[in-house]
Amino acid sequence: MKKYILSLAVLSLFYTKSDACAWSDPDYEYFNLFTQSIIKDKSYLPFLLTYSNRFYGDYKNMTIPDDNIETWKKFFNNQLNYAETENLVYKISMNDLNALKNGTPTNPLLQKLGTGFYQKYKEGIDYLIEAKYLEPYMSINYVESPDSFYSNGPSKNQNATSIDYAKTVNALTSLYNATRNPEIKQRYGYQLVRFNHYTRNYDAALEAFKTYIEPIKQKGTVYFMALDQLAGAQRGKEMNSDANWNFFQVFMNSKDRKESAFVSMKLSDTASFSNIMKRAGTNDEKNMAYFLLGYEGFTDPIPLMEKMYDINPDSEILKVMAVRSINELERSYLPIYYYTSDATDSPNVIRGNADDHNKASADSKSEPVEVKKEEKLSFWQKIVRFFKNLFGGSKSGTADGAKNDQSDDDLLNNPDRIPFYTKSGYGYDEKTKDYLDSLEKFTEKTKKVSKDEYWQIADAYLKFLKKDYKGSSEILEDIKTTNPEYLEEIKRMKVLNDIVSHPKIDAEFEDHLMKDYADYFVKKEVKKDSTAVSDYDYYAETPSTADFLKDVLANRYFLQGEDGKSFLMSNKLSDLQYNPNSSLVKSVEDFYKKPNKTQFEQQIIAKNMDNVGNIDAFFSTIYGDRAMKQADFEKAKSYYEKAQGFAGIPRMNYDWTDKGEKITPRQYAADEYNGFKAISNLVFGHNVWESFGSSATESMAAEDYSGFPFIKSSMNKLELADALIQLKKISNGTDEKAAKASQLIGNLLYNTSSLGYYRQLFVMDIDNSNGGKYDFWNTDRKNPYKYYYKNFLYTTYIEPDNFDLAINYYQKTLKLSKDKEQRARVLFQMASAEQGKYYQYEAKNVKTIDYSDPKYSEKEQAHQTELDHIKNEKYRTYFAQLKSQYADTETMKGLSGSCSYFGYFLKR
User: Fold this and answer.
1) Best label site of 460, 577, 638, 754, fewest CB within 10 Å?
2) Which helix (H) or strand (E) covers residue 273, if one does?
3) Banded model confidence at residue 353, pLDDT cuts 50, 70, 90
4) Could you tell me the pTM of the whole model?
5) For residue 193, what are the domain limits?
6) Nearest to residue 260, comparing CAs of 287, 227, 222?
């Protein structure tokens, strides 16, 4: 195989941290147990850690103080509260303020303030009237670049150039000179600087700042509003170093302008933060410069944090750096899914890897959709393997059954068995562990000198990540604080330590959970019409502390061998239909039938025993199906007798209306296969050509059923099992009828295997497309899940077929039949089943070759050559016999022309 050169677009698909979906958001792929936003200075909320946006997004739903409003509130001697001040400054119209000025206010707030309010704050109100007049025009005039290919100017037509320049400057200058209050005077100066900046009169803007701002010896909010405009004008004059420094001053000294000032710094100077560091003179400036350097180049921030600590260990921005570091660790330690090599390696699929079956279609017009898809997968499997080698993968699981023999110590101390301490395949490694150790040492040092309880909380959380639950709990107990956000975080962490520190979950502990922590597990149901148009909101389903705790419990149950409870912590009963492996189904049924369930089991776990109709019939159908796959027809019949109340495989219909998506339960027609009824007698037939996408009558041909009147044209599973029992009795004979009965049984077993047209029949599926019905797993474990069943629907696993069962029945036909054409047909069926045995062998003998190996192609080809040799030596027995002994049959001639992979074999 040639090495593939990947485009950046393809690389990006795999570099996303989990499922590589276009809608995947990395900020929703871990649990957010440590709340970043508990920092006290909310002006730094935009600079918390996010991978989804340029700035942290959640802060937009929080309150970052508006410097301008707080300054006006103080100007009005706190006569108005914050909301009223905001209303007066930003929302009340110019006409309303003029009415107040004229003594006839109509606005309710202004009426409440009274006519004396204007006389008391005359200069401030007059300024607001002028500011409200100017505001609609206060945007910079867009100038199209001569090199621009597309026009992307502002959408609104008016800007600062829409009003008379000389008249506006004269008016503002006159108002400035007439005003006595220094703060209001400076505000008029701010308008002059801004107006000149937005009209691109940059020199005039610089002069206005010098003339109208600097002489007023006040460096408050208005000063930095004006400085922000000055820096913009300096950037317009390409005075980038000065502009950058002034934006830096705005960043340092404002609350609500930090984000815009940061962006302006980046736009002004590509080496912005390094240059700022050179100009920093005071400790505060140096401290802020270190913060910006650490924020922008977020690799290992601890060296910069040490410098910040030396300047001021109580610095709020030091806490911002720390919380970003903690969040980075959370993403490595606490992803919402844990994947393992057993559970996520794409299984080798039928017709993958350019095997003979890859050429199985009768002709191009009958080639089914899934054959094309599966051929493509062989390439993507190699890409996935490449990225696993590149980024590191999880270790393989233990042998089947090992989990139930672990000691209590194993549950706690084996890092590969505790979910939030397990390598996820892309995040956690020794370097990450070293980073955690370093951050913990820094936090321990800082909490000793800082007056802020934040550092104690951070230290307790880092110890939680290191599984030192006792140490974490002791720190939390000693914290004395009245900060409500701190108290909420402490409460949450105490719950985490309590629950996670328990290696086993028994009835007594479940009672404790319901008594003390019910709010974390009892989800408040939102009533919705099941037939209503979907209003699903991805962001409303973000992972939470409760989700994390449920994962921990699911992991504990899994390790304790209580697979049913583990499964139901994350899934609904109906989900079993997608991967109905026997041991898991039995464990879920045992829980369903468990008497005297605890309150936790009843209210939290059993609630996921959702509506599948008759639950007992649902289980019986799955058991009956498995018995059929094992050719135990009597056992299957006994289960199907209990399954006659089966309501159908639970599926939903998704229909689009003019209002959106409408979701309704699927209703099966009377003559439609629903998982139990309406099974055609073609299930005993044979392929005309191999095309899963064609109808049954096109792909399959019936055998002669005249000697077996109990085979009906349409049957339910109970009738099908009964027919097989009768066929099995007849097959014990020694005549031609016994030979035919054996052939029919062999046909059914092959047709319902992963290679057969009816592969959906005994795996709880409604048709033969998609799903895991054609997967060949590369594991001997009965259960490919390693930690819990949370990713149950992301993984396909159906218990392997036993192709020897079909081959054994065909052997009887071969032995008893005197009809050479029949023997040829049976030999072909045996060869097809033997091909399935080869796929199983190949799946268990995957050789992982490092993609970076310079001899990758050579080694890959050598491995494929070895597989081809084994295939031809050990898995071509019946093909060879057919070729050597039955070349003259009509069956042989028909197969050569209609079956691609048989024709391919004959040419070898």
Assistant:
1) 638
2) helix 272-279
3) very low
4) 0.77
5) 55-141+159-283
6) 227
